[in-house]
Amino acid sequence: MQEATFFQGLPAGPSLPRGAWHRYIIFMSETRTAELLPILIAPHKTLKTRARPVTAGDASLIRDLVPRMFATMYKAPGIGLAAPQIDSLLRLAVVDVSPDDQKAPLVLINPDIIARSEEMATREEGCLSLPNQYADVTRPARIKLRYEDLDGSRREMEADDLLATCIQHEIDHLDGILFVDHLSTLKRNMLMRRLAKEQRQNSGG
Fold first, then answer.
1. What's the pLDDT at 62?
2. Would you say residue 199 lies in a domain?
3. Is the pLDDT of residue 97 over 50?
4. Which residue positions form the known binding site for Fe cation?
């Protein structure tokens, strides 16, 4: 399959040099043009559905979604958001684990983990689709990732610490997996019951 260049040659989109999308994302996510998106709450069926690969035909949709996903993630606040969480079954995720005053947006299109360390790390995780629910999850401490960026370039990167955890968490979303699926049945059921109870209380039910 030909490598997708998601934004090249699209007259409706902004004309930017390669590499300028970083600044564009930050600008757009901070303006009113980046409308916030509703985040699905578990156990919505979309959250348990495997997302499909992004193709060149999705360029306009991706261009619209990415700034809005970042705006939604920053507002929540969160450090990662996957397309299924906003009811879009595309293999797309956005991540930013940097301090609030040093934004470093990372767009992952069709991400694939190609190597994992044998060393494991345990970190407390939460999720915007399971608000106020947290649990320790054990994952590989380091990963190597292959993905496509907004310029349509195929890239590889290595990640460890919080970034590695966040990327693995978001790729799980693209495969219909929630962080609670890594827990024991007892712990998972307890968190899901607590979430359901909180949602009923918040809705006045």
1. 94
2. yes
3. yes
4. 127, 169, 173
Residue 70 φ then ψ, to 5°: -65, -45
CATH for 95: 3.90.45.10
List CB contacts of 172: < 8 A, sequence separation 6 or more.
178, 179, 181
- Gap between the Cα atoms of 1 and 15, Å rounded: 26
- Active-site residue list: 170
Q: Is 136 helix (H, G, I), strand (E, B) or coil?
A: strand
> Which residues are bridge partners to 135 per DSSP?
125
* pTM: predicted TM-score of the whole model, two decimal places: 0.85
pLDDT digits (tens, 9 = 90+) for 107-127: 999 999 999 999 999 999 999
Nearest-10 crossing angle of helices 21-29, 59-75: 50
**Domain-embedded: residue 121:** yes
Residue 103 — pLDDT band, cuts 50, 70, 90? confident
Query: Measured on CA atoms in the order 49, 55, 60, 63, is the torsion positive or negative?
Result: positive
Cβ–Cβ under 8 Å, residues 117 and 141: yes
Which stretches of the chain are DSSP H helices? 21-29, 59-75, 161-174, 185-202
14 in any annotated domain: no
